[in-house]
Amino acid sequence: MDSWREISTDRLRRHVIHSYRQGGGSRPDVLLIDIDGRKAVLKDHNACAHGFGKLLGPLLVSREAKALRRLDQIAGTPKLYATPDSRSLLMEHMPGKPLGQFGDNPAWEKFFIDFERLLREVHANGVAHCDLRSPNNALICESNQPAIVDFVSCVFRGWRWNIVSRWLFDQFSRADRSALIKLKKGVAPNLLTLEEERLLNERTMLERTARWLGAGFRNLSRWLLTKSAK
Question: N or C: which end of the chain has fewer CB within 10 A?
Fold first, then answer.
């Protein structure tokens, strides 16, 4: 919606009707906005500790905005509406429930078929999510359709000539697929195939290293950039 682009972060915050996550430290505010019946989600890194928000907020916003632009035509990923300032972005509200909070579902089989199709589309558009192991990033929306949110940790496919970058992208895409299988095991283990069980038990050295480096970077950045908030 072009009209969203004209609204400042301060004005958006005056129309909050729900808080999905309260910011602080390295965490942004994630807020549901409603203006005249139009809903959107505001992710605001201005709510982080000052040092973290100032130095890393613009980078995180830029990366997630780039991912959402690449995925704009894919149903099941939020559309980017605006970046009200360098530390915040406004995106489509995906009405649904996190997979981790969902109980019994008689249509799990179709849901995961659709989820696998959605993930293939995301990868085909050059984006690997890299944080699907968090069940809060996978939603069950209306009509039992899957949605994927929170692309802040994503990795992009490199140019055709960049063999190393494209190989890394393939590995992170493989980690996404492994995470999807883990989600399936958590809610519908009876649907796992023998091949999926094998893949679930197979963790590559790259995946282990990436997870270790990612956790290390997050912990270091939180310690360095949020000390002033303590």
Answer: C
Q: In the structure encoding, which two tokens stand for residue 79, read together?
A: 């559309």
Q: Residues with Cβ < 8 Å from 20, sequence gap 6 or more?
A: 30, 31, 32, 41
Q: 63, 92, 121: which is the final residue of a domain?
A: 92
Q: Assess whether 161 and 181 both reside in one domain.
A: yes
Name the pTM for this structure: 0.86
What are the CA-CA distances from residue 159 to residues 78, 133, 163, 164, 175 (Å)? 25, 27, 8, 10, 20
What is the per-residue pLDDT across 144-162, written as a single tens digit (0 to 9) for each?
A: 899 999 999 999 998 888 8
CB-count burial class (<10 Å; 0-12, 13-18, 19+) for 170: middle
Residue type at 190? Answer: N
Count the domains in the chain.
Answer: 2
Q: Is the pLDDT of residue 92 over 50?
A: yes
What pLDDT score does 229 carry? 41
